[in-house]
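Sample entry (120 residues):
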Amino acid sequence: MYSVKGLVDSGFYHLLLRPRVKKMIQSSPKKKQSQPLIFFLLTSGDPDQRSKVIQDTGNACRDWGFFMVINHGVQEKLMDDMVKASKSFFDMSEEEKGEYNGKQLFDPIRSGTSFNVLVD
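Predicted structure, serialized as tokens:
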């Protein structure tokens, strides 16, 4: 089992969590927070506004680990198709996904990390 999805699907990851992390996961948040939103349209105007968006993006990465980009111009159908394709890929067996493991950095289609497990 080489993938994070495989680890999560197995339920094994619970054994790896530290007690403090388990407590954080099990406890309910004291106040409801929404995920950070990044207004992409604001990056192409006033330099001060652009700087703030860049700073907000960095804060979201540091504090949350992710963010949601809105007003980016990508059509909803394309986003839905990408989500379906991703789900389809990650639902494959490890063997099937292995066919997409990148051997070269610039392979047109790649899966896996930048490390070659056979070498590293």
